[in-house]
From TrEMBL:
Keyword Methyltransferase belongs to the record: no
GO cellular component labels: cytosol
Location of the BRCT domain: 219-310
InterPro entries: BRCT_dom (IPR001357), BRCT_dom_sf (IPR036420), Ribonucl_H (IPR013520), RNaseH-like_sf (IPR012337), RNaseH_sf (IPR036397)
Keywords, sorted A to Z: Exonuclease, Hydrolase, Nuclease
Stated name of the protein: DNA polymerase III subunit epsilon
Example of a GO MF term: nucleic acid binding
Superkingdom of this protein's organism: Bacteria
PROSITE patterns xrefs: BRCT (PS50172)
Species annotation: Clostridium polyendosporum
SMART domains: EXOIII (SM00479)
Length: 310
């Protein structure tokens, strides 16, 4: 996937008071550029609460450029790109309000919100805050530094894409149940959710109910208790998110990638032993490599999973 992750910090409660901007550029699922700017707000008023959040003060930006002086440099990162942000309603509002303040034309771009994605994809987390989600993903960063926050938002989108094994934002948003927003000329359409949870319709697979009847499955099995379970590929009998919730109810921990802590890899693929390396997902390859090095990882097919649960 190709996209640009952004994060604004503001000097005060007004959305047209950006004091810093972080941008992370992703090409083919890899970070290719990270940029950071201090910005001198038009109104040089820094609210105590905002200073407490990001630590930027008036003296830090007194020699910085104002937004309109940076816009020619910033525009290529926005125009005709896919922009993502965590709590995008805030960041896109900061952009629009600041462009309005300086009477600058809106660029044309699509955008998505990783906070909305996180609410749908990680419903078992206490909240969908940037630090909460990335802590779950094992990603460390300096929260409320615009550059670090932009990269952290990018990490969430990349991890969700990896989990779902999709290569386009269209596939990802469809599966996670979110809609793409758009900014154009002097207007915009908002990003948001199409419904709670990962949608049941998967690309090139039959539709299925996204709600499973938990009473059909055993709540007494200890098979997954205190184990780290990772999923790879789509399941045919339930959505990924329902399976994750079920595993957590049974005492298991669900990981986002295969690591030295992984105990079980669950896949909808049958006859794993017959797969050639080029036919394996990245998670299957990683698990196979770790097994060859002596790690104990159990492969479970969906059929075996259902047998254990019933």
């Amino acid at each position: 996937m190709d996209f640009v992750a952004i994060d604004f910090e503001t000097a005060n409660e007004k959305r047209n008071s950006p004091c810093s901007l972080g941008i992370t550029v992703i090409k083919n699922n890899e970070i290719v550029e990270e940029k950071y700017w201090l910005i001198k707000p038009k109104e040089m008023r820094f609210a105590p609460m905002n200073i407490w959040i990001h630590g930027i003060r008036e003296e830090d930006v007194v020699n910085a450029k104002e937004f309109h002086e940076l816009w020619d440099e910033l525009l290529p990162y926005f125009d005709n790109t896919l922009v993502i942000a965590h709590n995008a309603s805030f960041d896109i509002s900061v952009l629009r309000k600041t462009l309005d303040l300086y009477n600058l034309q809106y660029p044309n771009f699509n955008y998505c919100c990783t906070m909305v994605m996180s609410r749908n994809f990680f419903p078992y987390l206490d909240n969908a805050k940037l630090n909460t989600v990335n802590n779950h993903l094992g990603y460390e960063f300096k929260h409320h530094h615009a550059s670090a926050d932009a990269s952290a938002a990018a990490n969430i989108l990349l991890k969700i894409g990896e989990e779902l094994e999709v290569n386009t934002i269209k596939e990802l948003t469809k599966l996670v149940g979110v809609k793409i927003g758009k900014v154009f000329e002097r207007s915009y359409t908002s990003a948001g959710t199409l419904g709670s949870g990962v949608t049941s319709e998967r690309i090139n697979t039959p539709a299925k109910s996204s709600k499973i009847n938990n009473s059909c499955y055993s709540s007494k099995t200890d098979y997954f208790k205190n184990k780290v379970i990772v999923f790879t590929g789509p399941l045919s009998t339930m959505s990924r998110i329902d399976a994750i919730v079920l595993i957590k109810k049974l005492g298991g921990t669900v990981g986002s990638s295969v690591t030295k802590n992984t105990n079980i890899l669950i896949t909808g693929v049958k006859n794993i032993d017959l797969l050639k390396p080029h036919q394996m997902s990245s998670k299957l390859k990683k698990a196979s490599e770790l097994i060859q090095k002596g790690q104990s990882i159990e492969f479970l097919t969906e059929e075996t999973l259902l047998t254990i649960l019933k």
